[in-house]
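Lecture 7 notes: from sequence to structure.
We start with the chain below.
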Amino acid sequence: MNKDMKKVVVPTLRFPDFQDAGAWDTKALGKIAALITEKAGSNRYTLMSVTAGVGLVTQIEKFGKEIAGEAYKNYYVIKKGDFAYNKSSTKQHPEGQMALLERIEQGAVPNSIFTCFSVDQEFVSPYFLKYPFATNIHGKWLRNFIAVGARANGALNVDSKYLLTRPIVFPSLKEQQKIADCLSSIDELISVQSQKVDALKTHKKGLVQQLFPLADGKE
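Predicted structure tokens for the same chain:
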């Protein structure tokens, strides 16, 4: 058995209701999740891509159009609560980015660069699990298995079986929900504050254009 599976895991910070709830469980991802193999075929789904810092977005949002072409029939179909692992290496996500489908009920992603899976919600809530994935627990694990310099169809050359061996730690569903609700409320606060900052930046830009001659670039 993997050494990581034998560790007794108890978080440093815990909600009062769960102080005496005992250690968190540990299972390989493959024990609580199943790979998605359903293809789009001739059915129509919203085509998705991934954006750093945002997650899954529509191809229209990212590219201004849908870019599937003939490859569309092989796209994986994902549903709300499913995860999509983008195997493209970027500066922010050198081992690839993990994203949860939250904004729409169903979508489809390119099978050439995504590995998709759904979790067994009798054990784990996807809305809890998205937070450890956001800290790159998958990337820290997979860097040991990625073939250096090797790519297939523009994606990192890493076998999905290694992703499924990643140990996942989790408490009871009630504690998962408590954690997810707490972090989600912080996400909402960050979003509101970000919108306020963006509005202030726009306001400042308008003031500069009005207060300084030629600041708007007009002669």
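Points to note: The domain at 24-170 is CATH 3.90.220.20 (Adenine-n6-DNA-methyltransferase TaqI; Chain A, domain 2). The first helix runs from residue 3 to 6.
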